[in-house]
Amino acid sequence: MSDLHLLKERIARRDYTVGVVGLGYVGLPLVLRFGEVGFQVLGFDVDPAKVKQLNDGVSYIEHVPPDRISKLIAARRFEAPLVDRLRELKRPRLLFGTAARRRK
Ligand SMILES: NC(=O)c1ccc[n+]([C@@H]2O[C@H](COP(=O)([O-])OP(=O)(O)OC[C@H]3O[C@@H](n4cnc5c(N)ncnc54)[C@H](O)[C@@H]3O)[C@@H](O)[C@H]2O)c1
User: Fold this and answer.
1) For the chain (length 104 residues), average pLDDT per consecutive 10?
2) 80 CB under 6 A from ligand 1?
Protein backbone atom coordinates (compact mmCIF):
# COMPACT_ATOMS: atom_id res chain seq x y z
CA MET A 1 0.00 0.00 0.00
CA SER A 2 1.43 3.43 -0.89
CA ASP A 3 1.99 6.07 1.80
CA LEU A 4 -0.68 8.26 0.17
CA HIS A 5 -3.20 5.43 0.12
CA LEU A 6 -2.46 4.67 3.78
CA LEU A 7 -2.85 8.34 4.68
CA LYS A 8 -6.22 8.56 2.92
CA GLU A 9 -7.45 5.33 4.44
CA ARG A 10 -6.46 6.38 7.95
CA ILE A 11 -8.08 9.79 7.51
CA ALA A 12 -11.29 8.10 6.31
CA ARG A 13 -11.24 5.82 9.39
CA ARG A 14 -10.36 8.79 11.68
CA ASP A 15 -7.40 6.69 12.70
CA TYR A 16 -5.25 9.67 13.74
CA THR A 17 -5.03 11.72 16.87
CA VAL A 18 -4.91 15.35 15.73
CA GLY A 19 -2.79 17.88 17.60
CA VAL A 20 -2.90 21.63 17.06
CA VAL A 21 -0.26 23.86 18.65
CA GLY A 22 -1.42 27.40 19.39
CA LEU A 23 -5.09 27.92 20.21
CA GLY A 24 -5.74 31.40 18.91
CA TYR A 25 -7.86 32.69 16.04
CA VAL A 26 -6.47 30.06 13.69
CA GLY A 27 -5.78 27.11 15.98
CA LEU A 28 -8.95 26.98 18.08
CA PRO A 29 -11.46 26.76 15.20
CA LEU A 30 -9.11 24.31 13.46
CA VAL A 31 -8.87 21.89 16.38
CA LEU A 32 -12.62 22.07 17.05
CA ARG A 33 -13.43 21.30 13.43
CA PHE A 34 -11.23 18.21 13.44
CA GLY A 35 -13.02 17.09 16.59
CA GLU A 36 -16.45 17.74 15.11
CA VAL A 37 -15.72 15.55 12.10
CA GLY A 38 -14.77 12.66 14.34
CA PHE A 39 -11.08 12.85 15.20
CA GLN A 40 -9.68 12.61 18.71
CA VAL A 41 -8.09 16.04 19.17
CA LEU A 42 -5.63 17.73 21.50
CA GLY A 43 -5.09 21.48 21.40
CA PHE A 44 -1.83 22.69 22.91
CA ASP A 45 -1.06 26.18 24.11
CA VAL A 46 1.61 27.89 26.17
CA ASP A 47 -0.91 30.08 28.04
CA PRO A 48 -2.20 28.40 31.23
CA ALA A 49 -5.22 30.72 31.41
CA LYS A 50 -6.38 29.75 27.89
CA VAL A 51 -5.83 26.07 28.57
CA LYS A 52 -7.89 26.27 31.77
CA GLN A 53 -10.72 28.15 30.07
CA LEU A 54 -10.94 25.62 27.26
CA ASN A 55 -10.92 22.62 29.59
CA ASP A 56 -13.74 24.34 31.50
CA GLY A 57 -15.69 24.70 28.23
CA VAL A 58 -15.18 28.47 28.04
CA SER A 59 -14.45 30.25 24.77
CA TYR A 60 -12.28 33.39 24.60
CA ILE A 61 -12.90 33.93 20.89
CA GLU A 62 -16.04 35.82 20.01
CA HIS A 63 -17.05 33.77 16.96
CA VAL A 64 -16.44 30.41 18.68
CA PRO A 65 -19.54 29.53 20.73
CA PRO A 66 -18.69 27.69 23.97
CA ASP A 67 -21.03 24.79 23.21
CA ARG A 68 -18.69 23.72 20.39
CA ILE A 69 -16.06 23.17 23.08
CA SER A 70 -18.31 21.63 25.74
CA LYS A 71 -19.85 19.13 23.29
CA LEU A 72 -16.41 17.77 22.41
CA ILE A 73 -15.37 17.64 26.06
CA ALA A 74 -18.57 15.72 26.90
CA ALA A 75 -17.80 13.29 24.07
CA ARG A 76 -14.27 12.89 25.53
CA ARG A 77 -12.85 13.90 22.17
CA PHE A 78 -11.08 17.14 23.10
CA GLU A 79 -8.55 18.21 25.68
CA ALA A 80 -6.31 21.29 25.89
CA PRO A 81 -2.98 20.45 27.54
CA LEU A 82 -0.10 22.84 28.04
CA VAL A 83 2.39 22.61 25.20
CA ASP A 84 4.98 20.90 27.41
CA ARG A 85 2.79 17.79 27.13
CA LEU A 86 3.22 17.65 23.36
CA ARG A 87 5.16 14.38 23.58
CA GLU A 88 2.03 12.70 24.94
CA LEU A 89 0.33 12.99 21.55
CA LYS A 90 0.00 9.35 20.64
CA ARG A 91 0.67 7.79 17.25
CA PRO A 92 -0.55 7.71 14.57
CA ARG A 93 -0.94 11.47 14.67
CA LEU A 94 -1.34 14.57 12.58
CA LEU A 95 0.19 17.71 14.04
CA PHE A 96 -0.48 21.30 12.98
CA GLY A 97 1.44 24.32 14.25
CA THR A 98 -0.25 27.72 14.38
CA ALA A 99 1.61 29.40 17.25
CA ALA A 100 2.61 32.90 16.25
CA ARG A 101 6.24 33.82 16.69
CA ARG A 102 6.50 37.05 18.60
CA ARG A 103 8.11 39.93 16.73
CA LYS A 104 10.70 41.96 18.66
N1 LIG B 1 -5.72 35.20 12.38
C2 LIG B 1 -5.61 35.31 11.07
O3 LIG B 1 -6.56 35.74 10.36
C4 LIG B 1 -4.34 34.90 10.34
C5 LIG B 1 -4.31 35.00 8.94
C6 LIG B 1 -3.16 34.59 8.27
C7 LIG B 1 -2.06 34.10 8.98
N8 LIG B 1 -2.12 34.02 10.34
C9 LIG B 1 -0.94 33.51 11.04
O10 LIG B 1 -1.33 32.32 11.74
C11 LIG B 1 -0.59 32.26 12.95
C12 LIG B 1 -1.56 32.18 14.13
O13 LIG B 1 -2.37 33.35 14.14
P14 LIG B 1 -3.52 33.58 15.21
O15 LIG B 1 -4.33 34.74 14.73
O16 LIG B 1 -4.20 32.27 15.51
O17 LIG B 1 -2.64 34.04 16.47
P18 LIG B 1 -3.13 34.21 17.97
O19 LIG B 1 -2.19 35.18 18.60
O20 LIG B 1 -4.60 34.43 18.03
O21 LIG B 1 -2.87 32.75 18.59
C22 LIG B 1 -1.60 32.20 18.78
C23 LIG B 1 -1.70 31.24 19.94
O24 LIG B 1 -0.46 30.55 20.06
C25 LIG B 1 -0.13 30.46 21.42
N26 LIG B 1 1.32 30.26 21.50
C27 LIG B 1 2.32 31.17 21.34
N28 LIG B 1 3.52 30.58 21.46
C29 LIG B 1 3.27 29.25 21.70
C30 LIG B 1 4.11 28.12 21.88
N31 LIG B 1 5.45 28.22 21.87
N32 LIG B 1 3.52 26.92 22.07
C33 LIG B 1 2.17 26.80 22.08
N34 LIG B 1 1.33 27.84 21.91
C35 LIG B 1 1.87 29.05 21.71
C36 LIG B 1 -0.64 31.75 22.04
O37 LIG B 1 -0.82 31.63 23.45
C38 LIG B 1 -1.95 31.92 21.29
O39 LIG B 1 -3.02 31.26 21.95
C40 LIG B 1 0.31 33.51 13.00
O41 LIG B 1 1.58 33.17 12.52
C42 LIG B 1 -0.40 34.47 12.08
O43 LIG B 1 0.50 35.40 11.53
C44 LIG B 1 -3.24 34.41 11.03
Assistant:
1) 94 97 98 98 98 98 98 98 95 93 65
2) no
